[in-house]
Amino acid sequence: MDLPVYEKIGQITEDEFKKLQFSTRQQAMLKKFMGLSAKDKYQLGDTTIVIKDAELYGLYKYDHKGRNIYYLIANIIDDHMAFSWNLYPVN
After folding, report:
1. Which whole number is the average pLDDT over 68-85?
2. Quick one: pLDDT at residue 1?
3. For the packed helices 14-22 and 26-34, what is the interaxial angle rounded to 10 degrees?
4. pTM for this one?
5. Between vectors from CA 5 to CA 58 and to CA 36, what angle results, nearest 5°?
6. If you average pLDDT over residues 14-43, what whole number do you get?
7. What is each CA distance from 36 to 12, 42, 82, 88, in whole angstroms?
8. Comparing C-alpha atoms, which of 83, 37, 26, 25 is closest to residue 58?
């Protein structure tokens, strides 16, 4: 089975993740971690993804039909799955 290819674009610390968890500005913080502008139109979500060799608190980018979706790995489930927070584009 071919797995989706995610590009690792960064890493945050456990302390940064804890601040994000309890922030009232989670979407803005996650955009900043991902290198996005506050004006970029993305919505915050969460999902389980199929990803090989994910790193806890790793920041990843995935191109889906020409649109970038950004992921923060919040929990590793097994060798090929992880729970993540994500930013997905909205029109």
Report:
1. 96
2. 62
3. 150
4. 0.93
5. 50
6. 95
7. 15, 9, 23, 12
8. 83
